Batch of 4 targets.
Target 1
Amino acid sequence: MADRPRVRPATMGDVPALAAIERACFGREGADDLLAAELTRSWARVRVAELPGEGLAAFVDGWLVADEFEVHFVATRPERQRRGLGALLLDHLLAEVAAEGATAALLEVRRDNAAAQALYRTRSFEVVAERRGYYDDGEDALVMRCGLGRFLGGPGAGGLR
Ligand SMILES: CC(C)(COP(=O)(O)OP(=O)(O)OC[C@H]1O[C@@H](n2cnc3c(N)ncnc32)[C@H](O)[C@@H]1OP(=O)(O)O)[C@@H](O)C(=O)NCCC(=O)NCCS
């Protein structure tokens, strides 16, 4: 990527841009209030990838609960996908929460979301369980888990490719 992305914590000023990414990636309208509430939670970790001169291109959101980190969303603007931003954000955030004491990361992903599953596998997540009919539309979830020991050395440490 010619322009290096910057990873930083999301701020309230980012909410409209985050909501636009949610709309583009998930078709969800009106996420502004939910995102603003998320930014007030001390246990939430929302990190953005910003491209110089272009603004926010991707974000990741999750909760640090005791010694586990729950990844809730990773989303990259459609026109900026497959440029390493999702992997970059996960590497930064997983290194950050590992340094805070998290020993594992967990997430649920739709069974038919091959792109997300592929991304998570590149970060060493493995399927550990299935939840039948987990989503509102009846689709199954796969539960994926990743030990965070390998991320303790910083953002570059977890990338195994
Ligand atoms: C899943 C998602 C976040 C990936 O983000 P991204 O920034 O495009 O991911 P990256 O460029 O960092 O991809 C890293 C690796 O993941 C895998 N990967 C990512 N997208 C993939 C796809 N569409 N198909 C296959 N593998 C994929 C590849 O191994 C890729 O490495 P490569 O490009 O060198 O082959 C993005 O597709 C997205 O926003 N989707 C819609 C929202 C969503 O479903 N989020 C996940 C559930 S919350």
Note: The domain at 6-151 is CATH 3.40.630.30 (Aminopeptidase).
Target 2
Amino acid sequence: MRWQLHVAKLAVMGRLPFGAGLRAVKRRFLGYPPNRGNLKGTLRDLEEMVGELAGMGRSLKGATVLEIGSGWFPVIPVMLAAADAQRVYLSDLTPRIDRGTLAATLGFLRSEHKDLGVVKHASRLEDFPFVYLAPLDLRRVEDQSVDFIMSRAVLEHIQKDDLLTLFRSLRPKLKADGLMLHCVDHSDHLEHHDKRLTKVNFLTWSDELHTLVNALTREGENRLRHSDYVGLLAECGYEVIKANACMHEPTRQIAKGLRLAPRFRDLTPDEIAVLRSVYVAGLREPRADFRD
Ligand SMILES: C[S@@+](CC[C@H](N)C(=O)[O-])C[C@H]1O[C@@H](n2cnc3c(N)ncnc32)[C@H](O)[C@@H]1O
């Protein structure tokens, strides 16, 4: 589908009276089958984040974990529970997970031959050590109680100022040796729907066009690049321990000839072609600047 049509569809659907209710009714009767490719991608990204933890000698067993933006299919929370996390806070802007999407997630994980460990017989949200915060109300999370904060495919949807606010508000929730792990997709998500676009098409847009598309779809991306996140985390009092950048070679080649918007013209093709990152960050000078 042409990206302009997709934007128009989202703009209309998001503004229909009773739009959310209609969607819920449709899903109730027709179900909401997950895209297996997406769920596999979620598993792969989680495995990388858990691998980073293991490499630092850290384990999920007995941990308290807060996931930002759990989405519709709670692959990450279920796998955290399977790894024996003691408590998993799920979060979102509004509740998205229901019995159907949980069942689809469990079906997917079981068909992937994933060992669901201690939750292998679980089937309802109440069977898991979950606390669902939708909206994300951090007053419900005790200060200095969280071992790990995680997100996957979420931060790119949060605008820069809101991201700064979020990072700052999360600081007090981490234990002194707590860690944040974030997996970010830096690509233009409209390319998922219109394959004629490059994966960094939105970097050619003026700020005005980008703002307009985000306003229409209400789910746009922030266009922050790999190094911007490192800077934002540092600005909010975190020490970035790792910043793994995954470069997309075809995009690197395309980037050499792209007519970028002025704000991106100083970026090298290598920088433009980083389409996925995993960040691991801890508290800088724990507790010293606790009350920011
Ligand atoms: C692309 S989905 C990713 C879902 C899931 N993490 C995954 O990888 O499958 C992004 C999710 O983040 C949620 N989200 C966006 N901004 C958020 C915020 N500020 N706080 C919590 N959740 C947010 C969206 O509502 C959506 O459910």
Note: The chain has a mean pLDDT of 93.
Target 3
Amino acid sequence: MESFPPSKMMLRYVPPLTFLKCTSCGTENSRTFKEEDYVFKKTNEVCPKCGNNELLIVGIYVKEREKKA
Ligand SMILES: [Zn+2]
């Protein structure tokens, strides 16, 4: 377990996004990160395209905050 400086985390925290790929048709989807997510985990979520209920987590990303011009 790594620890991060709490003040920095608080300031920069934005909900991460989880990217999932259908193991059947390869369609990629993204949704809000859930606590039990990790990369290469197979979930039983349903593919919106082909209805397959096995999606592989291919990435978890933290969205950058929108730049202030
Ligand atoms: Zn699919």
Note: The pocket of zinc ion is lined by residues 22, 24-25, 27, 47, 49-50, 52 (CB under 6 Å).
Target 4
Amino acid sequence: MQCCGLLYKLTRRFYRAMPSFPSTPTTAPSNGASRDFDFVQRLMHHIEQHGTITFAEYMGWVLYQADGGYYSEARGLGPQGDFVTSSHLCADFGELLAVQFAEMWQILGCPQPFQLIEMGAGQGILAADVMRSLAQDFPDCFAALDYGIIEKSSRLKRYQNALFQTWKLPQKPRWLDWDDIPHNSVVGCFFSNELVDALPVHLVEVSDGALQEVYVQVNQDSAPGRPFVETLAAPSTPALQTYFDDLNIDLSHYPNGYRTEVNLAAKDWLQTLSQRLQRGYCLSIDYGYSADRYYLPSRTEGTLQAYYQHSHHNDPYINIGEQDLTAHVNFTALEQWGEALGLKTIDFTKQALLLMALGLGDRLTALASDATDMASIQHAIQRREVLHQLMNPIGLGGFGALVQGKGLTSDEVQQPLRGWTVPPMTM
Ligand SMILES: C[S@@+](CC[C@H](N)C(=O)[O-])C[C@H]1O[C@@H](n2cnc3c(N)ncnc32)[C@H](O)[C@@H]1O
């Protein structure tokens, strides 16, 4: 099913200049499924050893397995790759988030250090924009800043490091593993942009009113280009049924063949994070729905999508290791799990409103008054187009922005966060 909420990943009319991404040699085409024959062979061998694996394990492998997984090779991010994110479009995204982080620092009583921990930092562009903006516009906050990055892909870590060398920023982030962060230690904010949608999901299907799980096995027919096929069986874990029970979703009335995703990895991630947070916030920006919209009985094919060279489709068994796989985020689940973990929901908004409240409207207004000659008018038109992409309601602007908090005093909780207030009407 093509979902209009995914159009943002197709847009790349305007984007900022980026250093070119180092390419990775791949082996010759094998059977059309993937250029990386060895990688597919290794996955086939792995699956044959187990008979079948869950789709979640398959997705984890094709995205993150060393020497061939999509993110481990890191070929696909950015305008030259398969998709762009808000940070590829312009620096404004990071600059406006910096406004919010500086305010959080103040609400927390200007702690030293103020830890900002970005999870899933991609090419590091957002980190660079946020740090540069804090250094320029909020020097006191910057002086207290301890910026950490938690990144799964070693290759992307190297890219991030190189970016910081190239762009000569006043401070480098620290690259952290979860084990480096003591429990109950972080005072500040954990945040992510398009991380949760990249976590491996379980695929489930309703079969005669019962919950079944999708497993992947090697295709014994060895059809060209299709090394893997699916099979249905009982869920691999009772957590899948519990997930729907906790959301009060009764799948027994759903149409036969109804298929959807369950992101159990997001629960583990939230738990790990909340254990480390002593006092502060968790900000998650991503595409997704509330549970009632996510699991509409009419959404019979779920939200799983594959991205390859700026086009998308729903076949996860081609371009193996060379296409991104992603599923929408269930924000209700993040809120429910958060509450159980001591991460209280503070507020939820859409990216368009968040950025407008943080000053995007003022930037748009200034564009008109700054344009005085033909060159500046053309520049203003181009910038306006980019800023509009950030708030396009059927694209990036429709993303959710969930802020949760832990260890905050009642005074701190009551102080409104600027990004979640109604933006002033500037136009
Ligand atoms: C879709 S990209 C988003 C990149 C970046 N935030 C942006 O907006 O351009 C997902 C990123 O999350 C990283 N990632 C995925 N799972 C992760 C995990 N469990 N821990 C840390 N990083 C992870 C990927 O390697 C990649 O850098």
Note: The mean pLDDT is 90.
